[in-house]
Specification:
Elements (H helix, E strand, L loop, with lengths): L2 H14 L2 H19 L7 H28 L3 H33 L21 H6 L6 H7 L2 H19 L4 H52 L3 H24 L4 H18 L6 H10 L4 H14 L2 H18 L5 H17 L6 H12 L5 H8 L1 H26 L34 H4 L12
Helix pairs in contact: 2-8, 2-10, 3-7, 3-8, 3-12, 4-9, 4-12, 4-13, 4-14, 4-17, 6-7, 7-8, 8-10, 9-13, 9-17, 10-11, 10-17, 11-12, 11-17, 12-17, 13-14, 13-15, 13-16, 13-17, 14-15
The structure holds aspartic acid.
Aspartic acid binds next to helix 15 and helix 17.
Amino acid sequence: MANQPSRRSLWRRYLDFPLIYKLAIALVAGAATGLIVGEPAAALQPLGDVFLRLLQMLVMPLVVVTLIAGVSSISPARLGGIGLKALVFYLVTSALAITVGLVLALAVSPGAGLQAPGEAEQRPEEAPPLAETLLGVVPENPFAALAEGNVLAVMFAAIAAGIALAFMRDSAEERIRGLGEFVRRGVDAGMELVFLIVRGVLQYAPVGVFALIAAVMAETGVGALVPLAKLTAVVYGGVAVQIGVYAALLALFGIGLRRFFGAARDPMVTAFATRSSSGTLPVSTRAARRMGVDEGVYGFTLPLGATVNMDGTAIYVGAATVFVANVAGVELTLSQLLMVVLVGVLASIGTAGVPGAGLIMLSLAVSQAGLPFAPVALVAGIDAILDMVRTMCNVTGDLTGTRIIARTERGMVHDPDSGGGSGGAAADPPPPGAHEAAAPAGGPADGPPGEPGERPGT
Ligand code: ASP
């Protein structure tokens, strides 16, 4: 009986300890455990899988509620503008990213002096053709799309529902208006519910991160990294450059970097450990809320970004294609390089944000450039290590686009904690009546007031 209060206070202390420190400790401890213990540490994988599944469990409900809530609070005309901005931002940054990867790799020649494994590796799975992906955006059955986890199709249906709901709430007929408000309140309640679960799941995140990193390190080991150290350095370096580009863009739009990265670091670490930008969606959505971005923007741009925007993957595709050419002793021509850029950008649209998806895109780029396949096997050996950093970059890119688009739209940035000070960008006043669901400060972003756990900025 006597130890009851002390046990409770230990738990309370755990909750009060800032999440980012817990994640950082888990990351370092996980890497050390994987490297020191070696192969047996792979047994920790199920603990990491639980974390992945908990996140994935939230993705579809989150996409549905945030999109319906977001779209129904902005006009369809504005949605078109936000969508167009998001697509342009995502395409331009992806093209830039693949160029960064190519240029860095061309400067370093990461594969020079390496031998391809004798046997030509079996071709990995092909990416779905672009036309099929585009047609698949219109679901025949939205419930099937939901069950299959087809994010783009679910987005389409949810946008349709959101637009219809906006019209209902705007109807001249009182009965329809009343029903519209009723549905809207239900959707808002659903959103709060999902975010409360996200908060809970994040308390498990350190365990999941520890286990996932330990398992990757145990399986890959430093030994596998040594011959490919140059490629690893180019990919990690490319991501560092790209994050520098994001910082410059954010600064250009007058967005405070401390506030941005203060909120972005949880999804960044989660992406690093889970290697899935789709899986990280609940955590990045929560971060966007903490940045004060309106659901009308993030509800749309984040699910879209998680599926179509992969800057880190683009860097990897650029760098690894040069690596493959080096190993094969082939000099890449300008037209081959342009082909790689084009394929990299297009393939990123058709590939989901799941672990290892980049390897499919690499295969595609390599075959389009007419390069031999065998060296891809070398890259596959360390793919997990490269996947971690490229997924982190992918998620940061989505959040950067989201924050900048919110900045350029009137009334799409609120100030969730008034002391925050996110540069000049914070808290444009919302247009009258548009965001009644944006709720009181501290509510949506950080759970119910007085909830244990992290405070803003943790
Ligand atoms: N794992 C990455 C993501 O989820 C995709 C990739 O393999 O590059 O964003």
